[in-house]
Amino acid sequence: MKTLASILAAAVLAAANSAQAAPLRYEVEPDHTFVTFEVTHFNTSTVRARFDIIKGFVELDRQAKEGRADIAIDASSISSGVPNFDKHLKSGDFFDVAKHPEARFTSTAFKFEGDALKSVEGELTLLGQTHPVTLAGKRFNCYDQPVLKAPVCGGDFEATIKRSQWGMNWGIDMGVPDDVRLLIQIEAVQQQ
Fold first, then answer.
1. Which keywords belong to this entry (predicted)?
2. Which end of the chain offers a freer environment for a tag, N or C, measured as fewer CB atoms within 10 Å?
3. Contacts (Cβ under 8 Å, ≥6 apart) of 46
């Protein structure tokens, strides 16, 4: 027959194990997080731009190999390095920031191979439309950040999307490609 002490010890151990398995919350670290995109320009050069304001969080349970992400991108923070091009990108021809000031990626599943996060499936909301996107992962890692003195997780993720799927059609009939390569470099800081 089990004693009360052994039952309590088992309950404490079970509670400790469930506490360790709980997802940890990580807030996006803006100095090491970049969302960029690139598209070829009439099959000659590659045109790139990035968004400078990204906010959000990642919840990660590395033991259970599960996670959740919700990332908001300020569309008006787009920067190509060319002011006239930025103005065009913000217009109704492309991101239409007056009507749609935010783009958002919300995950639906994290896919692991061993301890490595290989992809994040989710939904990208852009121009008021939401469609599925899978971000392939590279160099996913967690480490103790020596400057912030906190655990940090992050990596490089990418996908190629067809912008017309979200109704961004300007220039396709002139030869500006529909395919857009998204590149996301993200680091997020564990919250206490």
1. Signal
2. N
3. 38, 39, 40
Distance CA 27, CA 57 (A): 4
Q: Is 32 helix (H, G, I), strand (E, B) or coil?
A: helix
Per the CB < 8 A criterion, the answer to whether 99 and 90 are in contact is no
Six-digit token string for 15: 């509670």
Go through the chain and tell me how many residues it has: 192
Q: Which residues pair with 50 in a beta bridge?
A: 36, 79
Residues 6+ apart with CB under 8 A from 101: 74, 75, 76
Nearest to 133 by CA among 97, 157, 153, 101: 157
Could you please state the CATH topology (level 3) that the domain comprising 23-190 is classified under.
Answer: Lipocalin (2.40.128)
23 DSSP assignment: P
Q: Where are the alpha helices (DSSP H) in the chain?
A: 4-21, 83-90
Question: What's the mean per-residue pLDDT of the chain?
Answer: 90
pTM, to two decimals? 0.86
pLDDT score of 20? 52
Look-up: residue for tokens 């009360």? Answer: 4
Report d(CA 148, CA 144) in Å as an integer. 8
